[in-house]
Structures are given as structure tokens and as C-alpha cells.
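INFO  loader      accepted 1 record
INFO  loader      residues=333
INFO  predictor   begin
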Amino acid sequence: MKHQVPGTPEERYMESQGVVVSVNVSEKKGVQKRPLERCQVLADHGLEGDAHAGPWHRQVSLLAEESIQKMQALGFDVGPGDFAENITTRGLDLLSLPLGTRLTIGGSTILEITQHGKTCHTKCAIYHRLRECIMPTEGIFAKVLQGGEIKVGDEIKILRSTAPKGGEVGMKVAVLTISDKGFRGEREDLSGKVIAEKLASLGAEIIHQEIIPDESDIIAQRLRYLADEVDTDLVLTTGGTGLSPRDVTPEATKSVLDKEAPGFVEAMRYESLKNTPHAMLSRAVSGVRKQTLIINLPGSPKAVEECLNVILPALPHGIEILRGRGGECARAE
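INFO  predictor   done
INFO  writer      dumping C-alpha cells
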């Protein structure tokens, strides 16, 4: 069965992929949601009357009925809405859908997938009842691009997938230029421009770009924000990695990392040393905070481009592994 949906000619006709089993809302967070027959979905907000709706990236949550059935098979008395999902689906492998995939529900509502799973900082009602919750591992989240009414029985179709193709590095990227002069408007941010243009041309989505001063507290705060609140795949910093007294980017970065991933900066230094002995003066670091990869790049536009060319081949697979979507790193012989 085919259905006409908005979009370019290539996107207009898509096969049916799944169906809405239940539509669920709650007036408070951390509680089970109550099923409705139908509900209005508001653009850039979420389900009308739902506590989780709002101007952020997790406006709508989805969980497959097949996931709930796993819990039922273990003897748990659970059903749609018990895991606080907004939309319970059937027939759609939610976790296989790449970030950026767009779904249309009922022919009008359009969602874009923004996150797979989540970290539960506070335990919800279902966890306290069962001592287990599948939403963190099997649920997905989306933002609302186009609103409309959704109801039980509506078809769900994959409208567009932005999975990387042909060498693209599809991921959400933030660029931080760290420079006192740049922050004061005394120097043009050429390095940040190089990073943004290079990554965007390869299929990445630049979701945040900013110039901040060489202040350790500010750098650390921005890195925490981008990793914890914005759901960024990759943060690239430029500047502040040398021996100057004001160069504090490595220290600020280390202060927020859960673990270091030194291979990126080791590879950059190795290749850069072929061009200049000054590469050994770099103190850049790279590592992981939660599910965000953070890499320090040098400050000059030329060095930035050279270093990006070194690390770009490894970034897509690294992000996939970090986000739990990739397989083993070993190559077949």
C-alpha cells in the first residue's frame, strides 16, 4: 500500500512500515502514561497535554509493542503507556532507524528521530514497580517537524532517512572556537568556518557553533552542556592547545571527560609532524563524555583542515560504536 506524503518527488511515495498501537500522555513526568484514542501533536512541542513536550530534542518518545511483549513473556503485567512512551508502535524496528530518520504518522504528522535510548537520572514509576525498565535501551525519541492528529491504527511510514551514504559522515556536530581575540571580535573565526564547512559538505549537521574566550570554566561548561543537554555526537574545538599561558583547552576538556580516546590526537600529531616540528608542541586531547566524542583541534585554519583529513575516516564508525549502533572494530581478513 502506498500513501502520498509531503516532500520532494523522491520522498513522496513510501511503503507502509508500521502502525500506531497506542497514543499515551501524562500530566507529570516519571509516571506511567494513560492511553488515548487520538491526540493532537504540536509542531516543535510534542503531544498536547503531555509533560514531556516542550522546546527540546526529546519531544516525543516511541516504544515498540514487540519490546513490551518481551516483558510480558517474563511474567510482567505491563502494556502500552506503562513505560512512559508517547507512541506505542507495531511492525517497525525502531532501533534500526538512524538518527535523522523522518517518520510520517497518519499522513500529516512528521517526526525526526533525535535519540536512541536514554540515561535515567531519576527512576520512574515503572522502575520502582518492576525494578526494570526497557525504555532506556529500546525506546527512541523524536522532535515534531509537522503537527497533526494521530490516533490508534494510524500507519507509520519512513519518509526519509539521513543515514550516511557514499562516504558521508552523518552526525550532529558542535564547533567551539576558543579564542580571546575572536570572542572580542578582533579576529575572524576562519578555523571554525573551515570545520563547519568541511563537516557539512560531508553530510554532518552543524547544530551549534560558537566563539568563547580562553577561560577554563566557560570551556568546561559549554562542553558539559553540549554533551549532556543537546545530544551532540561530536564536539570539535579549535584553539587553545599550545604552550601559551592562556592555552587552557586541554585542561578544561580533561575536566569533563569520562574517559580519554587518545588515538585521534595521536594520529593528528603523527601526520602533522611530517609537515612541521611545531606539531610536537600541541597538547590537544580527545575523549568521551557520556555518548559524545570531544576532540581538540589546533587553532590555524590550515592545521585544522590537515587534522580533519586525518581523523575523518574513523569518525563515523567511532560515533556508531559510542552510540551503541555499531559492531565490532575488527576487520575481516
